[in-house]
Amino acid sequence: MQELKNKVALITGGSKGIGFGVAEALMQQGMRVAITSRSQQAADQAVALLSKTGKGEALGIAADVRNGEAQQKAADLVVSKWGSVDVLIANAGLGYFGSIETLTTADWNETIDTNLTGVFHSVKACLPALKKSKGYIITMASLAGTNFFAGGSAYNASKFGLVGFTQAIMLDLRNHGIKVTTIMPGSVATHFNNNQPSPEDAWKIQPEDLGQIVVDLLKMNPRTLPSKIEVRPSLPPHP
């Protein structure tokens, strides 16, 4: 997939943060990019910003990844509009943090349903189109998918599970010509976990950095597959 112009990508959770950074990078390559958000207003606002690049095309769709039917409708809409899905970026995610003593069942369920089951729904919805296009699936996991920490039981479980899921489907799908990669970022300058991005976040990975990684993956020779990529800030603050 070395030539990206007019290729079609579906990005879940694309209205802000990492998803938006990836969408910007893909549109700079002249791609057609559909982003999903739980809010149609947020999706439309993001599309308005993306369209200012003057390259590619953008589409905003309200779809909650926890709902398999909503994901299927989103995939069908993209195919009906642009004829294919060449790239799925399964990015939507959230986190609740705290001791198992205080973690609620609702917090657990929302974390697992969004970060893990939501990716399953997105992959299943896009799979027929990806088989036709011999496309690419990229999941956004986390270093928390390898490194556990106190207060992270739900988030760690979801991201450990996502890494395992992604690596398994990579083996399932490669004979269909579909490439699968999981990207595992460390600290990223986004609104995740109620953070407000500021100049103090300059040391963190920036969303556009992950966008560049995605572009590099898509342009890589098809014979080679970086199946799991860990990404860290080069110079985190000293403790």
UniProtKB/TrEMBL annotation:
<feature type="domain" description="Ketoreductase">
    <location>
        <begin position="7"/>
        <end position="192"/>
    </location>
</feature>
<dbReference type="InterPro" id="IPR036291">
    <property type="entry name" value="NAD(P)-bd_dom_sf"/>
</dbReference>
<dbReference type="GO" id="GO:0032787">
    <property type="term" value="P:monocarboxylic acid metabolic process"/>
</dbReference>
<protein>
    <submittedName>
        <fullName>SDR family oxidoreductase</fullName>
    </submittedName>
</protein>
<dbReference type="InterPro" id="IPR002347">
    <property type="entry name" value="SDR_fam"/>
</dbReference>
<dbReference type="Pfam" id="PF00106">
    <property type="entry name" value="adh_short"/>
</dbReference>
<comment type="similarity">
    <text>Belongs to the short-chain dehydrogenases/reductases (SDR) family.</text>
</comment>
<dbReference type="InterPro" id="IPR020904">
    <property type="entry name" value="Sc_DH/Rdtase_CS"/>
</dbReference>
<dbReference type="InterPro" id="IPR050259">
    <property type="entry name" value="SDR"/>
</dbReference>
<dbReference type="InterPro" id="IPR057326">
    <property type="entry name" value="KR_dom"/>
</dbReference>
